[in-house]
Structures are given as C-alpha cells and as structure tokens.
Amino acid sequence: MISIQQISKQYKGAEQYSVSNLDLSIEAQEIFGLLGPNGAGKTTLISILCALIEPTSGSFSIDGLTYKKHKNKLKQLIGIVPQEYALYPTLTAFENLKYFGSMYGLKGKSLDEKINNALEHLGLLQFAHKKIETFSGGMKRRINLIASILHNPKVLFLDEPTVGVDVQSKNVIIEFLQDLNKNGTTIIYTSHHLNEAELFCSRVAIIDHGKLVIKGEPKALISQHKGAHNLEDVFLSITGKALRDHA
Amino acid sequence: MHKLLASTHKEFLLLSRDIGAISILFLMPLVLIITITLIQDSTFKTVHDTKIPILIVDNDNGKVSKAVFDGLKNANSFEVIQKHNEDEAKDLVFSGSYQLAIIIPERLSSDLEYKINQNVEGIIEKFAMEESDSTETAPIKAIPSKEIKLYFDPASQIAFKTSVKNGIDKMISQIETASIYKAFQDQITDDPTETIFETDKFITFKEIMPLKDNKEIIPNSVQHNVPAWTLFAIFFIIVPLSINIVKEKSQGTFVRLRTNPVSYATVLGGKTVLYLVVCLVQFVLMLLVGTYLLPAIGLPQLDISGKLPLLFIVAFFAGLAAIGLGLLLGTIAKTQEQSAPFGATFVVILAAIGGVWVPVFIMPKFMQILSNISPMNWGLNAFYDVFLRNGSLLDILPEISLLLLFFILTMGFAIIYNEKKNAV
Roughly what angle, to the nearest 10 degrees, separates helices B393-421 and B375-387? Predict the structure, then answer.
C-alpha cells in the first residue's frame, strides 16, 4: 500500500537529517504506529507522505501512485489529521466540515448526510451549528478527524490525534478509527501514548534520530525484549532515558 | 467551479463574522472620506467658516497700509488683528500663538507717493526738455526703499508663506500702479474728474472647463476627493486580506488545504471573488456618501450622472489590483505582525507616490517617474478621466489594462511563490 524507499529529509539550515535513509512498507488495512521521542522525525515523515514537504532524497508511493505524477489522485486517496486543530474558529462545525468536504468535490445532500452521520458517530450532532471557538479540546479533535475522512480516504494519516483530550473523547476517537479500519481504511498514526499504540496498532515502528530502529507487532516486540512488560519498556530500552529537549 | 464557490462562501462567512474587518473595510473609509473632504473643502471654497487670525502692526497709517488691511480682510481667509508694537507681534508669532505678523513701515504711503511723483515728474520734465532743448533738471531727493516685514510661525507651511507673500506683493503692486496713474493724471490735468487713463484691467483670465452636454464640468473638492480617497480605501483591502491569509497559515487550515485536492489558485480565487464584491460595495457606499451625505452637511454634491458604468469599471479593476497585492503580501508574510504594518504602510506609500495627497505634477522629477508604477496612480488617473475630464472607455483603457496586468502579475507571483515554497 505504502512503499518508502531511502527517504531522507534535511531542513534548510539544519545540521542533522530529520529523516535519514528510511525504508518502510505498510500494508493495506493496517493500523500502523509511528513511535519515537520528540524530534525523532515522525511528523517530518508524515508530512512527506502527505505532500506537505519535499524529501531531500529518496522516493515513496501510495497505492502505486507518486506525487510527481498523480498529485490530485493521491490527495483524493489520503486523509490527514494534523496535530493542530486546522479548523476555522468562527465557523460552525457543520460549516467547517461542509467547506473541507467541498474541497474533495463532495456536495449537496450526500455531503450533508456524511457530515451528520460522522457527527452523530462521534457524539457531536447537537453541536453541529455551534462555532468551533466555543468547543473544548476534545470536541475540536473529533471535528478535526471528521474533516479528514468525509471523502472516505484509503489511507488516513493521524499526527497525535488524541493529544490533549480527555479519556472519553480518546475512547470515542479510537473506536471511530477502528471502525474506519474495519471498513478498509489504512491508518498510519503517530503518538506518544504508547499504551494506546500497543492496544490500537497492528504494527508499530520506532524511529529515533530520523532512523528506523525497529518495527513489528507490539506483542512480538515486547516478547523480543527481555524484562519488557509493555511497549513503553521496549521504547525506553531502545531510545534510552535521556531527555530529548531540542530547540 | 464548485470548489471556487465553496471557497467564496467560506470567505463570506469568515468576513461576516469579523466585526473588526467589516468596520475597517466599510466604516473607516466612509469616516476617512467625510473627514478629508470636510478639511480639504476649505481650499476650494471662497467663503470660509474659519479664518486664520493674523497680526498687523501699522506704522504707516496711510493709504497703502489701509489697502493691505482691507485686502486681507476682504480675502475672507484672515481675521486681521491690529497691534501697535512690532516686538509684541513678533513674540506672539514666534511662540506659535499666531501664524503671521505683518509690519508696515513708517511713511510707506507718503514715501511711495513721493517716489512715484518724483519719477513721473522726471519723465514729464524729460519730455518737456526735449521740446524746449533745456538741460536743467530739478534736484532728486533720495528715498530709501521700504521693507514690509513678515514674521511667520516657524511651523507654518511653505505653501502658506508663499501664498501670503504673493498676495501682499500683488496688493502693493496694484497700489503702486494706481498711484502711478494718479501721478500722471495730476501732472497732465488739474481736473480730477477728467478721465485720461482707462484703469480697468486690460488682461483678464478665463478658465475653460471640459464640456458635457454643453455644460461645463466644474471640479469641486468632492469631485477631487471622493475618487482619490475611494481608491485609497479600496487599496486598504490588502490589510485585512493579507491578515486573512496569514491567519489561515497560523490556524493550520492552510496546511489542511494543501493536503486537499484543490489548487492554490482556487483558494485565492475564492478570496478574490469575495473581496472584489467588498470593493464594489465600498465603492457604492462612497458614491452614496458623495451624492447624498456630503451635500447634507454643506459640501458640494458628487456628480455621477451618466458616468456610473465607467466608474464601476475603474473600481472593478482597481479592486482587482488591490486584491492581487493583498494576496501576494499574505502569501509571502509569515505573521500578522509582518503583514499588517507592512500592508498599511505600503498603501500609504502607494497613495503618496500615486498622487492621492500631492498632485504628481508638483512632485520632484524622480518621484514623477516613480508615480508611473503606482497602481493607485493608474486608478486615480482613470477616475479623474471619468469624473473631471469627461473621458470615455477608450480613454481609461490604458489605465485599466495596467491595473489588470498588475493583478495578473501579483496573483501569478503569489501562486509561483507558494508552489516553490511548498514544492513536493
């Protein structure tokens, strides 16, 4: 489904590569977790795969398509849930979703139905006509998610989709994503919540200093590491306990 | 098309919920145009409600000082206050209490009269000697030249100084001329009622205005100010428009749009359509103010009869040029702190070099050349062509073509810049 070959990215003025010679392939209908400490290169990799930034070298394809040749087809194929809310605060939830749905060519009653169904599914139907600026963080995260799936993407990228939300909102989001996955959507997601990733992902990859360190099924990775009881233990044994502050 | 309409609708919703932007776009230009027209109208009026108080120290007490005094009073621009001490008048002016003090020297009238009589007698004697072949002439008493002192407030504008100096010079010249005629009259005849010289002005001025339907188009402050400041307001759209784009970047919505199958041109197209409508609504409001509100507060009426289609064409293309600039600025700027002050300052610069404040013809040569590249200058010329020169579509074609070209170039730069910056 997604094939990444020798992708590297060095930002202008940066001494280090944010992503370095990374090879990875992700199968269709996987829930794939990209894990790593702060500054490991997760967001950079997702940004490359979503055509937000250009890789310094290497190539990738999604469903056999590349951006250079099939830019619009590829954009129609994917959805991205960015870390920021990426919504217009003064527009209502419905207006936001209607607008972003329209950008995928959706229109009319079918778009309205899709929006209402998704809002209902994520418990936000009664807030459809309230402005986003009045929403809590958890509510905004859910609208942010809906805005990315109205066009039924084959691949959904999520960058920290549950950061800053309460447990209830997190559960609703995870269940919604699992439903999407059951209906055929491949999910690639980054998170710092390793317990969440352990339960949610079919496979994970740990990236550090821009390089792929390890990949596999969470249970298999835990069993491969002596003394590891969960994914967090595996993570710490691979990436170490040193702080990763950077500016 | 569907994406363009959706983008336009979204922009409409965003703008309609931004009270600050609405007031900047619609209210401030109206306040601006009313204020500026009220202020500038005084330069066009012959009767003023307000007069500049000036001081006069009359050490002459003769007919010259009386003529100056009456001339200033009749000019209706000044409130003439008489003082008796030069030092007091000087101190009052230099401290900023008054704009001007005029000090008329002692014996100005009598010495002027004496000097003129002396000259005229000299001429008459010269003629008489030629006829009688005599070589004797009367001795000439030397009269020192007289000096009228003018004290100006150091803060006075040069234009004000020049205009006052020219005005007084003209008054003195008229008195001198009249005195010369009188001196000749006294020398030639003893009968003061006898008319020897025709003293009425031989050369007069007639200003010829363009005609429309055999009626002269007479410009007034409103005809000058409304187009100039309307254009200024239209170009001010670059501030909210660039902020709108920068906000999208900071909110993250722009990142989402970049992952959507929609071109940057379509996103900008939605903004262009909405803000073009805003420009035209602004323009209509300005015309309504000029036509109905300004006459109601004692200002001349804006005459738009028969000109509306051409005026809308100019407003349309000026709006496009302004929007193009706003889109480019918003695309390049990274923060609102960059776009807002730059946008506002840039509009003021464009207005200055475009001739909105000071006519282009009185600018230094270099600035005159520079004004040719100001889109505000093109728009202003097109408006003046329609409002004041009775121009046709053909007359405004060069200006509106330049405005359209400016829009295409700025929009093109914005799209290319965005593509280059975010290339995949």
Answer: 160
Residue of chain B whose alpha carbon sits nearest to that of A148: B256
The two structure tokens encoding residue B375:
């889109």
* Least confident range of A67-81, B60-74, B194-208: B194-208
CA distance linking residue B24 with residue B30, whole number of Å: 10
Q: What is the pTM of this model?
A: 0.74
Residues of B in contact with A80 (CB under 8 A): 256, 259
In angstroms, the separation between the Cα of residue B254 and the nearest Cα of chain A is 8
Q: Which residues pair with A79 in a beta bridge?
A: A156
pLDDT classification of B47: cutoffs 50, 70, 90:
very low
Cβ pair A80, A46 in contact under 8 A: yes
What is B52-188's CATH number?
Answer: 3.40.190
Whether B253 sits inside 8 A of A88 (CB atoms) is yes
Residues of B in contact with A75 (CB under 8 A): 259-261
Domain range summary for chain B, segments of one domain joined by +: 2-44+221-421, 52-188
Q: How far is B318 from chain A (nearest CA, A)?
A: 29
Residue range B196-224, pLDDT digits in tens: 777 777 777 776 666 666 666 555 667 77
Query: Which of A65, A102, A152 to mutate against chain B (most B CBs within 10 Å)?
Result: A102
Closest-CA distance, A105 to chain B, in angstroms, reads 7
| Range with the poorest average pLDDT among B39-53, B234-248, B364-378, B384-398 | B39-53
The structure tokens listed for A210 are 């821009």
pLDDT (tens digit, 9 = 90+) per residue, A101-160?
A: 999 988 889 999 999 999 998 888 999 999 999 998 888 988 999 999 999 999 999 888
Q: What is the DSSP string of B335-392?
A: SHHHHHHHHHHHHHHHHHHHTSSS-GGGS-HHHHHHHTT-HHHHHHHHHHHHHTS---
Tell me whether residues A82 and B6 touch, CB distance under 8 A: no
pLDDT, one tens digit per residue, over B147-173 is 888 888 887 777 778 878 888 888 888
The CATH number corresponding to A2-239 among 3.90.650.10, 3.40.50.300, 1.25.40.10, 3.10.150.10 equals 3.40.50.300
In this predicted complex, what is the ipTM? 0.83
* Nearest CB to A103; choose among B9, B251, B257: B257
